[in-house]
Amino acid sequence: MSIITEPSQAPLVAQDLDLAYDNRQIVSDLNVAIPEGKFTVIVGPNACGKSTLLRALARLLPPAKGTVLLDGSNIAKLKTKQIARRLGLLPQSSIAPEGITVGELVSRGRHPHQSFLKQWTDADETAVLAALRATNTEILSSRLVDELSGGQRQRVWVAMVLAQETPLLLLDEPTTFLDVAFQIELLDLFSQLNNEHGHTLVAVLHDLNQACRYADEIIAMKNGAVIAQGAPSQIVTSELVHEVFGIECTVIDDPVTGAPMIVAGKPKKTFAERDASTRL
């Protein structure tokens, strides 16, 4: 079952996308619309095109064919600052400039709101402090980013994106390097941004149960194509999990949230068989 958001009602739309790296096609004729005011999670096996799609939606990867629309306008024709005021991106991996402190890095999230005539303001200061507090990194503000653990650095990058204060947030594997407690804390924060502040969020997650628990909408991908899109309760079935991930499972109600919860069995394919069937 696939439920597709009408493009006219979506702030971010991909139309007939072909995406490739070095002439190696990853995505073909993909159409997807991101629903406004929802927490959307993209799931799928490794190398299926999840992060590739996210990069295209953020204008980091120009499509070989097709168009990405941001608020109805071709994103390729918008100025960088226009995009940065509307859309924030947490990439899969980020490298901080050498010798930069946490506070300085998070402050860079305010760059889209500044200009030659409008320098640092009280609003900028408030946004940075709020982002540091939300990610529990305020105590790290004076420390060098290079000195932090992987989990601490990940929370600092999230703080920088939050400081940008955009209505749209794209998050590529935001829970990387975090232990389970911080994963839940961070996903709770994203859910709060969505529910209480109306942010539209799109995240790539590997944990299907976390996706079902937090997402309003799931986009399931395989081999560069969208297999299904819709609310977890409507599309997440044992048949879909088998089709996308190649594993047998039982889908039950999450005892805490009532969302679908996957109890996985053994995969039917070996690593080698799965790799052979996946577009690399």
TrEMBL record:
GO terms for molecular function: ATP binding; ATP hydrolysis activity. It is a peripheral membrane protein. Residues 12-248 form the ABC transporter domain. InterPro entries: AAA+_ATPase, ABC_transporter-like_ATP-bd, ABC_transporter-like_CS, P-loop_NTPase, Siderophore_ABC-ATPase. Keywords: ATP-binding, Cell membrane, Ion transport, Iron, Iron transport, Membrane, Nucleotide-binding, Transport. It is found in: Cell membrane. The keyword Membrane applies. It comes from the Bacteria. One of its GO terms (cellular component) is plasma membrane. It holds the Pfam family ABC_tran. The keyword Nucleotide-binding applies. Gene3D superfamilies: P-loop containing nucleotide triphosphate hydrolases. One of its GO terms (biological process) is iron ion transport. Transmembrane segments: none annotated. PANTHER family: FE(3+) DICITRATE TRANSPORT ATP-BINDING PROTEIN FECE-RELATED, IRON(3+)-HYDROXAMATE IMPORT ATP-BINDING PROTEIN FHUC. This is ABC transporter ATP-binding protein. It comes from Brevibacterium aurantiacum.
